[in-house]
Backbone:
């Protein structure tokens, strides 16, 4: 009912109001950015799990190397001979299985993220072992020549001749000092595949100086229900090797994400608390300064709930304006930080943060509103 | 006092009796008529004491005299103007006398007397505030009224003090 | 004539650091509709405490304060607040206008709190502005007004809901005497022209002399009561005055 007075009070102390709103903008944009990162990880996780259906990765892990932190592991190393034996193992379909070499070419700018570009040496004709259900959208799907490469979307963007443009089929690119010809582009895929540069295994071994070894053997069971039997065979025959299937991957990745989510959620909770405290301090001071005014309003007939409404309204105005301004701020920050942003995700987060803004506004105003309600009408008669 | 008022007017320029009457009445806010007798008696006295003299007499047969101030008159006026006023007359309070006599005579109920006195003062105060508001454009008249108002306010406060002291006096005896 | 407000042997005791101070010690008074009453006394006489109880802002420790026959002590905070909103207007020594609202809005806010519909608010605010002579100042903020103008706004605000009772706490306390006279004349005008019941509390006898009835307070008690109805002939007053001073 006293909404106009709430606005005028805020306008009266413009500098303070603007600084408070700025604080809320910073907090909410941080909240939005973190939300966006978390969403991105979730999608990535789902994508990975999809692509590993019916397959196992056999790797030799260096002790202490968590599979989840660096998957596929680029430190894993298996002799080519032993790897060949695995391909001929029980229940293995050699046609859709392959030896693979993973080498990180470019690290990501994002924390905890898979590499920006990862070279995937694969046996020509067996690309499907790595790609699974993902297909090539442009060009060929089979590495015929020694210097042929197939690029994921992110990798193509990385090797594009101009900023923001993807490398196209037929273009030549330089990796580790050698030139290659792009023969195919993958359809949009989760990160791991998007960042991949597929090249013939032997070329990869030579270019990255890994002759005689591979990182992993990707095994596909001959029968749909044969994965378990295939795993058992590998585990009993080669106890030194570790087998990672969809279940482990899900579990490991989930564990890692759980920690990360906890971390991010802790940050987010802190951000919200900071925002609440900032507004609370400002409102407590505002009530302290205006005790006589509030007393006067009570003296001329304002009920306690009218005073309550006025203080809650002021608090809500600050938090809502902060949230509204946080969207452009968030887009700007994302653009600055990573050169890209996820508009749909941010919009969604933004809508959700309206709820949070209302929560911040209401929670922050509870204490000051209580103080304001307790102001006695007689305080209007205090003379300074 | 009236003699000094006339001396003051003559100090500016010579006047005859009728001029003096009009000038005084005007300075007093036109509220009061001065009679000629008072003016001529005072002029006669001033002439006798050598403070004023006749400058000329009109020859219209009615003998209208114009008066002017003498050097002695000017000295007397200036001495009077420069002499600071000592307050003593206005400290005398008739009501205090009544209170004392009331006490000596053994009549109680000083509060009733104080209340009656307060009523009288308040009524006077009301009249004076109205007057001060009405004559706000006349500097000397409003100053006079404001001065009287301040005196009355002091008197009213003093009545409160009388009440307080006499109450404790009565309760202790 | 009907009684607007009445106190019966009312007391008010304050507790301060373990000591009790009795500010009001058994005051009984009755104010009739249309009266202009001044409660006068020095600071500490209990006049402000009495005013707070008359204005439904404070409760009596003992005794009754009856507003239109209803004991204020029996009302809850909400009911007393509503009473202040609709039936009691209050004028403060320090004006107490909302600094962020302009003159118009400061008058209107009382009606918003009193639940007056928008259209009627506009009409009444215009009338009140004219009554206190501030129509030209409607869009000014309080800080751009003189003390006397602010107090006029405060009086207009206090009158906005057409209260049965207008209370003023030292209404001229922060004004020079000439401006104060204007305010007192305005209060007397709303009393005599509109039949508004007015109670002012003051330490200034000059302000008190505008009332029809003066109650003198000392030490929490009424020490005297004086009626001052009717205006004196100023011409006669001046005549007397000159006789005293110049005669």
Residues:
């Amino acid at each position: 009912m006293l909404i106009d007075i709430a606005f005028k009070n805020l306008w009266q102390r413009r500098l303070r109001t603007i600084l408070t709103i700025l604080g809320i903008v910073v907090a909410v944009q941080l909240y939005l950015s973190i939300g966006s990162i978390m969403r991105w990880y979730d999608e990535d996780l789902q994508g990975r799990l999809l692509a590993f259906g019916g397959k196992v990765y056999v790797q030799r892990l260096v002790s202490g190397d968590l599979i989840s932190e660096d998957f596929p592991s680029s430190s894993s190393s298996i002799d080519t001979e032993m790897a060949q034996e695995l391909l001929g193992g029980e229940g293995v379909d050699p046609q859709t299985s392959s030896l693979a070499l993973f080498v990180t070419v470019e690290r990501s700018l994002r924390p905890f993220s898979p590499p920006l570009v990862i070279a995937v040496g694969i046996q020509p004709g067996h690309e499907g072992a790595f790609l699974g259900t993902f297909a090539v959208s442009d060009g060929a799907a089979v590495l015929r020549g020694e210097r042929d490469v197939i690029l994921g979307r992110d990798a193509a963007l990385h090797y594009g001749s101009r900023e923001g443009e993807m490398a196209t089929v037929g273009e030549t690119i330089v990796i580790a000092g050698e030139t290659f010809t792009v023969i195919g582009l993958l359809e949009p895929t989760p990160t791991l595949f998007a960042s991949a540069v597929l090249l013939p295994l032997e070329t990869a071994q030579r270019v990255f100086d890994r002759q005689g070894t591979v990182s992993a053997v990707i095994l596909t069971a001959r029968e749909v229900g044969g994965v378990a039997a295939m795993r058992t065979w590998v585990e009993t025959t080669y106890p030194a090797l570790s087998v990672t299937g969809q279940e482990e991957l899900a579990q490991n990745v989930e564990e890692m994400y759980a920690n990360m989510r906890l971390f991010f959620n802790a940050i987010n909770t802190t951000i919200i608390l900071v925002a609440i405290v900032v507004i609370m301090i400002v409102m407590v001071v505002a009530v302290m300064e205006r005790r006589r005014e509030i007393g006067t309003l009570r003296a001329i007939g304002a009920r306690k709930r009218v005073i309550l409404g006025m203080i809650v309204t002021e608090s809500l105005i600050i938090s809502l304006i902060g949230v509204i301004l946080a969207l452009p701020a968030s887009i700007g920050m994302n653009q600055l930080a990573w050169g890209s942003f996820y508009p749909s995700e941010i919009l969604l987060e933004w809508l959700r943060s309206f709820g949070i803004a209302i929560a911040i506004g209401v929670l922050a105003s509870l204490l000051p509103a209580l103080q304001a309600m307790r102001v006695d009408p007689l305080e209007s008669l205090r003379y300074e | 006092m009236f003699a000094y008022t006339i001396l003051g007017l003559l100090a500016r320029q010579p006047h005859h009796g009728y001029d003096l009457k009009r000038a005084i009445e005007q300075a007093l806010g036109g509220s009061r008529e001065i009679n000629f007798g008072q003016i001529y008696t005072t002029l006669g006295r001033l002439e006798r004491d050598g403070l004023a003299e006749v400058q000329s007499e009109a020859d219209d047969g009615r003998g209208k005299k114009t008066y002017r101030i003498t050097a002695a008159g000017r000295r007397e006026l200036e001495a009077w103007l420069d002499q600071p006023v000592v307050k003593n007359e206005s400290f005398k309070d008739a009501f205090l006398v009544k209170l004392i006599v009331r006490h000596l005579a053994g009549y109680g109920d000083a509060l009733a007397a104080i209340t009656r006195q307060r009523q009288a003062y308040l009524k006077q105060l009301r009249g004076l505030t109205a007057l001060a508001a009405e004559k706000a454009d006349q500097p000397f008249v409003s100053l006079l009224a404001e001065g009287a108002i301040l005196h009355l306010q002091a008197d009213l406060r003093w009545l409160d003090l009388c009440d307080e002291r006499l109450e404790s006096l009565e309760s202790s005896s | 004539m009907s009684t607007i407000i009445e106190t019966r042997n009312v007391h008010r005791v304050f507790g301060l650091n373990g000591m009790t101070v009795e500010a009001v010690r058994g005051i009984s008074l009755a104010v009739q509709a249309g009266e202009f009453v001044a409660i006068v006394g020095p600071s500490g006489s209990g006049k402000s405490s009495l005013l707070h109880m008359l204005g439904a802002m404070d409760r009596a420790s003992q005794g009754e304060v009856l507003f239109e026959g209803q004991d204020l002590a029996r009302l809850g905070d909400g009911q007393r607040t509503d009473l202040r909103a609709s039936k009691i207007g209050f004028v403060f020594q320090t004006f107490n206008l909302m600094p962020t609202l302009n003159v118009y809005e400061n008058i209107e806010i009382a009606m918003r709190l009193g639940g007056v519909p928008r259209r009627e608010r506009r009409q009444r605010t215009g009338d009140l502005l004219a009554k206190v002579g501030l129509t030209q100042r409607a869009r000014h903020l309080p800080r751009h007004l003189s003390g006397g103008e602010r107090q006029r706004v405060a009086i207009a605000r206090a009158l906005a809901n057409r209260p049965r009772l207008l209370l003023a706490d030292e209404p001229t306390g922060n004004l020079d005497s000439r401006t104060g006279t204007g305010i007192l004349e305005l209060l007397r005008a709303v009393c005599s022209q509109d039949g508004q019941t007015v109670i002012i509390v003051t330490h200034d006898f000059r302000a008190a002399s505008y009332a029809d009835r003066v109650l003198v307070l000392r030490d929490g008690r009424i020490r005297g009561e004086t009626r001052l109805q009717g205006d004196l002939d100023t011409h006669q007053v001046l005549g007397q005055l000159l006789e005293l001073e110049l005669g």
